[in-house]
Amino acid sequence: MIKVVTSAERHTAKEGPVHSEYSFSFADYDDPGNAHFGCLLVLNDHRMAPGHSLESHSHQDLEIVTCVLSGQLLHKLESAGSEELLEEGSFQVLSAGTGVTHSEHAPVGDKPVRYLQMWFLPEDRGLEPKLSHRCFPKEQRVGRMEPVISSDAGTGEKLQIRQDVMIYAPVLTDRTPVHLSPDGRRIHLFLIAGHADFSCGKQTFSLHPGDAARIQSKETISISKTGEDPAELLIIEMP
Questions:
Q1: Measured between alpha carbons, how far is 193 from 237 in angstroms, rounded to an integer?
Q2: Which of 94, 127, 147, 204 is a Cys-bridge partner for 166, taking CB atoms 3.0 to 4.6 Å apart?
Q3: 37 membership: H or E segment, kind and range
Q4: Element (H, E) at 108
């Protein structure tokens, strides 16, 4: 199964200074046929103007992954009395567990913040809340198919998520392809920037910025950059 969802097919929401593109049903966008892909419930592409925020709100029993694509994002975890400034290239995993309250802010300045936020079902309900983050600059991700987030953090640099999920964020600067062997696991491939082709079995597809592919196959997936600019990708592997 391969389904390509173009950027134009996403739901656009604009509330004042926040512009969002929803890949799945969210808030006022209710589409029962597009509620999730495996354990991935939400993939929102947010752009927030400087000096504005998404006010305090609560979550429970979710694994929330945030990726800052440009600018800075100030994250406040009110339920724990803490805050952290996430720079470009930062990834954050918030395990909401028994309940958290948080808010997101774009610091005052000249540059808006663009960030992706994903919600996953957790492996278990009622877990203790947990927060972690790490910066993975683009230059460190060129051509690399090493996970930035995994259910098994081990001793490496990757962050841990409480679900059987692997998240990769390669940046392709030349025509050398990267490969995945999902063996029937679901793959959600999202193109952040640039242009790329991917092949699975005998089929080849082209992706433009904001396009995504939902794949479930035992065939090897090969992804390569097209066009002049680097291709920046977010790849989610899950059951």
A1: 20
A2: 147
A3: none
A4: none
Q: Which of 37, 70, 73 is nearest to 52 (CA)?
A: 73
Return the bridge partners of 74, or none. 85, 105
Query: Please, which pLDDT band fits residue 21 given cuts at 50, 70 and 90?
Result: very high
DSSP symbols for 161-224: -SSS-EEE--EE-SS--EEE--TT-EEEEEEEESEEEEEETTEEEEE-TT-EEEEE-SS-EEEE
Helix (H, G, I), strand (E, B) or coil at 7: helix
Give the type of residue at 133.
H
State pTM to two decimals. 0.94
Question: Which residue spans within 60-194 are E strands per DSSP?
Answer: 63-70, 73-77, 82-86, 90-95, 100-105, 113-120, 130-135, 149-150, 159-160, 166-168, 171-172, 178-180, 186-193
Please choose, from the candidates 136, 112, 138, the residue with its C-alpha nearest in 3D space to the C-alpha of residue 232.
138
Considering only CA atoms, which of 130, 118, 111 is closest in space to residue 65? Answer: 118
- Distance separating alpha carbons of residues 160 and 78, to the nearest angstrom: 22
Q: Apex CA 24: angle with CA 134 and CA 30, to 5°?
A: 140
Structure tokens at 36: 């999730």
Tens digits of per-residue pLDDT, 156-198?
678 999 999 999 999 999 999 999 998 899 999 999 999 999 9
Does 199 or 109 have the greater pLDDT score? 199
Provide the pLDDT for residue 238: 97
